[in-house]
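Support request, please re-run this one:
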Amino acid sequence: MLVVIQGSKSIKSNTAIIFFLKQVIGACGGPEKCEIVKSKGAFAAIDYNKESIKDKVKELTDGKGANIILDAVGGDIFDQCLRW
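Re-run finished. Output below.
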């Protein structure tokens, strides 16, 4: 099972990363946040300010996409996650 977590630098997202045991792709706003998420054990991190979440998730998963999307932020990022 692969999970995409938007806003993955937050405490609740860190808990989700631990729960899903490295089967996580974090979506963050900025390279520093991406590094923090990867240091917490995420499989990968996407800087949504520079990359399309949809395109990058498809690339990282050989076109399969994610099983679960955890989005605590909403807005444009949420819309990208709905369009697999």
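The longest strand covers residues 24-28. The domain at 3-82 is CATH 3.40.50.720 (Rossmann fold).
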